[in-house]
Amino acid sequence: MSNLGRLDLNLLVTLDVLLSEHNVTRAAERLNLSQPAVSVHLAKLREFFGDPLLLPGPRGMRPTARADELREPLRQALEALGHAVSPARPFDPAEARHTWRVMASDYGESTIVLPALAGLRKAAPHSRLAVLELVPSRIARQAEQGEIDLAFHILEDAPPGLHGRTLFAERYVLVGRTGHPELERPPSMERFCRLDHVIVSPNGGGFRGVTDEALAAVGLSRRVALSVPHFLFVVSALMGSDLVAMLPERLVRGNAALQVVEPPLQVPGYEMVMLWHERVHRDPAHRWLREHITRAV
């Protein structure tokens, strides 16, 4: 790198053409330079490499042994540099071999990743998708360091400094097993509070959530009999018991094993957002992935 710092990289382009043409005049024509300018470039190259590089011969110039050593590595380096600075090619998902990494909770897996998966496999059959467990405190750092490409999280808890797009708004409904005797019709507030509830506590072991805050605002409380860390476990627990839960509507939509009714109080919902870092904001492949997910949900 110290040697490169002393060298005008345009001189290497001149050397590459000279090694191809073996003639200063023809090299000047290809480079759209004057013959004296190419001669000056050659003099600087000779000084830099400490070698004549090209010597006069009966049919033009002939390369020295050092020049022959430089020919192929120089050609490969200039081609690689050309690719590096060329405009980004349009992304073709059918030919891509990407590995994308997204961070999601089990709720995000069910409501975002799963709806997008079949179309993703069809459109980009050679690419891979890794789903990492959602840890909100790590989203910003892992996105910055390139450990994840996307994260799916609630808007109110999204870390600052990331790009984001709202995917949908979610609301809570009251859910129990199909045939639950207390859910044949929407319960009164009194019956709602007497039911045995399940709560999702992502941090583990909590027995209070947004529903309890809404109840506390009107001076009421409910019975929370079970606290679990994952939404999907709640669904299984409801189907095998008389427990009930306030769950996001999208999680239980279309499940014939569950009875869904309107709760007797309004519980604030949330917006689900897709988050990504500036490092992938303009990348064609990542833009395609974000658009695909947005359409799918």
UniProtKB/TrEMBL annotation:
Gene3D superfamilies: Periplasmic binding protein-like II, Winged helix-like DNA-binding domain superfamily/Winged helix DNA-binding domain. Residues 7-64 form the HTH lysR-type domain. This is DNA-binding transcriptional regulator, LysR family. Belongs to the LysR transcriptional regulatory family. InterPro entries: LysR-type_TF (IPR050389), LysR_HTH_N (IPR000847), LysR_subst-bd (IPR005119), WH-like_DNA-bd_sf (IPR036388), WH_DNA-bd_sf (IPR036390). The keyword Transcription regulation applies. Keywords: DNA-binding, Transcription, Transcription regulation. Pfam families: HTH_1, LysR_substrate. It comes from Pseudomonas indica. SUPFAM superfamilies: Periplasmic binding protein-like II (SSF53850), Winged helix' DNA-binding domain (SSF46785). It comes from the Bacteria. PANTHER family: HTH-TYPE TRANSCRIPTIONAL REGULATOR LEUO-RELATED, TRANSCRIPTIONAL REGULATORY PROTEIN. GO terms for molecular function: DNA binding; DNA-binding transcription factor activity.
